[in-house]
Design goal:
Peroxisomal Thiolase, Chain A, domain 1; alpha/beta; 3-oxoacyl-ACP synthase; 354 residues; globular; ten-stranded mixed β-sheet
Length: 354
């Protein structure tokens, strides 16, 4: 059974995660309820004629995938698998608005065609002229993990030797206004919006695109190995520790073998109970990392978390801006990522150095 290695990374987020090493230019914004994206120079990756027709989620996905392929030194892949929670919501809004504004007449189909969830995967395939397996998972907060799980199985079963896997989500104005009305996003004028120690409901929202070039062989540029991925639907706070211990035991590991743990704190007082319980008990003697204060919360924010975990292994360091506690290790070999949202869609991802 083949192993799965991360040989390339590409990340577009609310931080400058391109043309940098590892968050050395990161900025902590605790005054906004929505974190804006730091956009790259799109014309360096996409023909200018095509850019104007693309929603930002598509553009970011193309750029992030191109960065991952470049680092992995790959021209094409055997499969493209993406995960997204909201899909191309910006084009969906444009089309629905056009229906209302034009009284359901004289509609151009462009926004409708580009509003589907698999638009990003399709556009990447068109750019690469890749006619191989292409699938998009839309599973809420485990959309990215579902894509990662599929990719890992394909490599293990030798159905593919190289796979491009990514998580993409974008923001759109009207959808964000609905999220604010529903209480999903923190209320305005109640800042600073610090994730740690938050006593209110709601999150600081964000968007981003993160891609990984996975292969079945180690190269000189190999970053980390993906050991295991597990997805669970619903757990009580008291059940999480035993599930983590079982997950580690399957991989012949214990808590003492974990060199760092990445927890998906998002500032929602109820959702973060799951993480606080682990921080104060199970992982009290383990270096702890959080990341959504930099990326914002969105359905595939865990892909940004995996990018952070992979970079920790690659650079063998944890930037102060993502540290939850003051613990350090001489080396970071095995890292566990745990993410959930409002008590559902729990995911465990285990990576290690090679």
């Amino acid at each position: 059974m083949k192993k799965t290695y991360i040989n390339g990374l590409g990340c577009i987020s609310a931080q400058k995660t391109f043309d940098t090493v590892f968050l050395e230019e990161a900025e902590l914004n605790e005054n906004s309820t929505i974190l804006s994206l730091k956009a790259p120079v799109y014309k360096d990756f996409i023909p200018p004629v095509a850019i104007r027709r693309m929603a930002k989620g598509v553009k970011n996905g193309i750029v992030a995938s191109a960065l991952a392929l470049k680092e992995a030194q790959l021209e094409t892949v055997d499969a493209i698998i993406t995960g997204t929670g909201m899909g191309c919501i910006e084009d969906s809004e444009k089309f629905l608005k056009a229906i209302l504004d034009n009284d359901e007449q004289f509609l151009t189909p462009t926004s409708f065609i580009q509003s589907t969830h698999n638009t990003v995967g399709g556009q990447i395939a068109l750019g690469l002229q890749c006619k191989a397996y292409n699938l998009t998972y839309v599973n809420g907060s485990v959309s990215f993990e579902s894509a990662l799980f599929d990719a890992k199985m394909m490599i293990e079963e030798e159905e593919a030797s190289s796979i491009l896997v990514g998580g993409i989500d974008e923001m759109a104005d009207y959808t964000m206004s609905l999220f604010k009305l529903a209480g999903f996003i923190k209320k305005e004028n109640q800042g600073p919006y610090s994730i740690l120690g938050s006593t209110t409901k709601g999150v600081v929202f964000g968007e981003g695109a993160t891609f990984f070039a996975l292969e079945n062989q180690i190269k000189n540029n190999t970053i980390a190995e993906i050991l295991d991925v597990e997805i669970l639907n619903k757990l009580n706070v008291s059940e999480v520790e035993n599930k983590i211990l079982s997950f580690l035991a399957v991989n012949s590991l214990e808590i003492s073998d974990i060199d760092a743990v990445l927890l998906g704190y998002n500032g929602d007082v109820d959702s973060d109970l799951y993480y606080k319980n682990l921080s104060n008990t199970t992982f009290i003697n383990v270096p702890q990392v959080y990341y959504k204060h930099l990326s914002g919360e969105y359905d595939t924010a865990s892909a940004f978390g995996l990018w952070v975990g992979s970079k920790i292994i690659q650079t063998q360091s944890i930037p102060d801006i993502v540290k939850l506690n003051a613990l350090d290790k001489q080396s970071y070999k095995t890292i566990l990522l745990y993410n959930q949202r409002n008590g559902i869609d729990h995911s465990f991802t285990l990576i290690s150095s090679c």
